[in-house]
Specification:
elongated; binds protoporphyrin IX containing FE; 3 domains; alpha+beta; about 260 residues
C-alpha cells in the first residue's frame, strides 16, 4: 500500500502529469503499439517467420537431365515445388533452384524459368516474344551481353543438360531394341511359340501348364510328367531360353 502511495506521488514529480492522465496516456500508447504492429505481422506469423529463418531453404542437389526438349523444360518453371527450377542459355540447361527468390513463382525473373531465355538476356528484355533460345539477328554487342550472362551462369549454377529438338535418349533406344528383339524372335522360337503342333500331337488341349512348359523349363522337371515328345519340347524350351538370353544380351550391349 505504501508503495502504491509513493508511486502516485512520484508520477507528478517525474512526469508533471496527474496519475490519471499518466495511466490514460500509457494505456493509449500500448493500444496504438498493438494496433500498428498487428497491421504488419500477426503474432503467430511472427513466430512462424522466426522458425523459417532458423531453417533456411536448402535446394535439392542438382540432377543431371541429359537431353531435354523445350516442352519438357517448361515443366521446370517452379509451378511444381517438388521439381527443380531450370533455365537455359544458348541451349545449355542450368539448375537455378538455389536462386528461387529470383526465378521462383513471384520472383522478378520467374518468366525465365523453364525456358531458354537467351534472346531476352541478350536484349535485356522482359518481353514475352523474346523468351526464346533463337539468337538470330543479334548484334555483336548483344551477343557479348549474352556471353556475359552465360559465363555468370556457368560459374554460379550446375549445368544439368541441354535442349534438343527431339528426344532420342538411350533409354528409348534400349526400349526400342528390346521391343524389336521381342517382335522379331528367331524363326525357331517363333515356330515353338506359334506352332501348337507339339500340344496337338499329344492330343491335349492347350493348358496353362503347357504354356508354362514353353516359357519355363523348370516346371517340366518339377511336374516329372512323362509327356510324349517332352524331350523335344525341353530342347526347344532350352532354345527359347537361349533366344531370350540373346535378347537380354542385346539389351545389356545397348546400354
Ligand atoms: C532496373 C533494372 C534492373 C535492376 C535494378 C536489376 C537488379 C538486379 C539485382 C540487384 C540482381 C541481383 C544480383 C545478384 O545478387 O547477383 C539482379 C539479378 C538478375 N537480373 Fe536484374 N536488374 C534489372 C534489370 C534486369 C533485366 C532487364 C534483366 C534481363 C532481361 C535482368 C536479369 C537478371 C537476372 C537473370 C538476374 C539473376 C542472375 C542470377 O541468377 O544470379 N535484370 N538484377
Amino acid at each position: 500500500m505504501a508503495f502504491y502511495t509513493e508511486l502516485l506521488q512520484a508520477i507528478p514529480d517525474y512526469t508533471g502529469l496527474s496519475p490519471a492522465a499518466f495511466f490514460t496516456i500509457l494505456g493509449l500508447m500500448i493500444a496504438v503499439y498493438h494496433l500498428v504492429s498487428g497491421m504488419f505481422v500477426g503474432p503467430d506469423d511472427h513466430r512462424k517467420q522466426t522458425a523459417a529463418e532458423m531453417q533456411p531453404y536448402v535446394p535439392p542437389e542438382p540432377v543431371q537431365m541429359g537431353d531435354v526438349t523445350e516442352e519438357e523444360l517448361s515443366a521446370y518453371d517452379g509451378s511444381d515445388p517438388k521439381k527443380p527450377l531450370l533455365m537455359a542459355i544458348k541451349g545449355q540447361i542450368y539448375d537455378v533452384s538455389m536462386s528461387r527468390m529470383f526465378y521462383g513463382p513471384g520472383g522478378p525473373y520467374a518468366l525465365f524459368a523453364g525456358k531458354d531465355a537467351s534472346r531476352a538476356l541478350a536484349l535485356m528484355s522482359f518481353e514475352r516474344k523474346d523468351l526464346t533460345g533463337n539468337i538470330e539477328g543479334l548484334s555483336p554487342y548483344e551477343l557479348e551481353t549474352l556471353r556475359d550472362w552465360e559465363l555468370k551462369f556457368m560459374e554460379k549454377y550446375v549445368k544439368v543438360g541441354q535442349i534438343v529438338k527431339e528426344k532420342t535418349s538411350s533409354e528409348d533406344t534400349v526400349n526400342s531394341e528390346k521391343t524389336r528383339g521381342i517382335e522379331e524372335p528367331s524363326k525357331e522360337t517363333e515356330n515353338i511359340i506359334t506352332d501348337s503342333g507339339i500340344i496337338h500331337e499329344n492330343g491335349e488341349e492347350p493348358s496353362k501348364e503347357t504354356e508354362n512348359i514353353i516359357t519355363d523349363s523348370s516346371i517340366i522337371h518339377e511336374n516329372g510328367e512323362k509327356i510324349e515328345g517332352i524331350e523335344e519340347s525341353k530342347k526347344e524350351t532350352e532354345n527359347i531360353s537361349k533366344d531370350l538370353g540373346k535378347i537380354d544380351e542385346a539389351e545389356v550391349g545397348k546400354i
